[in-house]
Amino acid sequence: GTAAGVFSPSDLDKGTAALLRNVPDPHGRNLLDIGCGWGPITLALALAAPSATVTAVDVNERSLRLTAANARELGLAGVETHLPEDVPADRTFDTIWSNPPIRVGKQELHDILMMWLPRLAPGGTAWLVVQKNLGGDSLQRWLAATLGEGYCVDRAATDKGFRVITVQRASSEEEAVALANDVAYGLASSVWTSDV
User: Fold this and answer.
1) Where does the pLDDT of residue 14 fall: very low under 50, low under 70, confident under 90, or very high at 90 and above?
2) Rounded to whole angstroms, what are the CA distances from 193 to 37, 94, 106, 110, 128?
3) What does the CA dihedral 17, 126, 81, 8 come to, rounded to 10 degrees?
4) How many CB atoms lie within 10 A of CB 2?
5) Cys staple from 144: which of 64, 80, 153, 186, with CB 3.0 to 4.6 Å?
6) How many CA atoms lie within 13 A of 109 on its CB side?
7) What is the pLDDT of residues 45-61, one digit of tens each?
8) 130 forms bridges with which residues in the sheet?
9) Which long-range contacts (CB under 8 A, 24 or more apart) does 111-115 make?
């Protein structure tokens, strides 16, 4: 179900639809949806990876209750819903899918992303959807400049005015160095950041 007072209460919003059209199946055992709303991304993650733990976070407790109820209705036992501060501090994530809350403002959005993207496990990938006219390209550049050593930021797709951005964490220090060198020599199209 959906309800008033949560993001996109009446149906699947266009950004989430664009994200879901362009993501591969999630990998790993710990998956995350940042800003879950009523849970469409959480539910898609849990349906695609039924043996995984899917952590759904939102600052809106009504959203968390709706996501949990929708997961129960579908029999998805691996879904956990949490306020951001209640997610175990040592939990890392193999896959993150998110339609982040762009309209909270640039600084708040940056804070949210920097809370979660550094928690990608080695080799993990985040998939983010952002409307082009709401700053998708500038967010991609900011992520590449901000994340630091061992992250690759790339545009995976453009879909009906939305950018699907990937953030991949290197699986090892050696991979981070090799990929940074590939970018430096024009052998890779992605932007890897490395202090090495």
Assistant:
1) very high
2) 31, 19, 22, 17, 18
3) -30
4) 17
5) 153
6) 20
7) 999 999 999 999 999 99
8) 163
9) 112/34, 112/35, 113/34, 113/143, 114/146, 115/84
